[in-house]
Amino acid sequence: MMRERDVTIFYLELPEPGAFRPAPNKGPELMLMQARHATPELHRFLYTAVGGDWFWVDRLPWTRRQWLDDIERPGVELWVAYLEGTPAGYYHLVREADGMVDIHYFGLMPFMTGRGCGGWLLSQAIERALALGSGRVTVNTCTLDHEAALANYLARGFVEVRRECFSKALPRHAPGPWPGA
After folding, report:
1. Which of 71, 81, 102, 128 is the most buried (most CB within 10 A)?
2. Residues 105/92, Cβ–Cβ less than 8 Å
């Protein structure tokens, strides 16, 4: 059953590389690895596992081919954080033709939220984005994301450049990390 929900999207940009304020990892020791042979299955797993509680539903109907087309685009990178061999979070970067890098997806697995790792993982994403591009880094978040998401982005130096409010038909409850299970 669907219902209309008010949603606000916050379009954020790092105004210059010098505005970046990195955060230390205050939580458990994490290892970060680039998924150099990322598959549609890995991308979809991370998308649903991280976003399932936050109404990340736009890509759920995608076919394997759509996922593959998305990850095979030039300039796409997927990085996964691990805690003792278990995926703990990820970020998905997209470098555009003009050199701008967008943090397309970012987040922690549910078992990792509230443990002091979000600022550190976002800092890693920003550092990689700055290394890849022209110094222009963007990210979007919305009122459907984790309640600490916007504060984390702002604390790392992002500023709001635009805001969009609209109503969206969404399931009554977030699909959770195992949609359809």
Report:
1. 81
2. yes
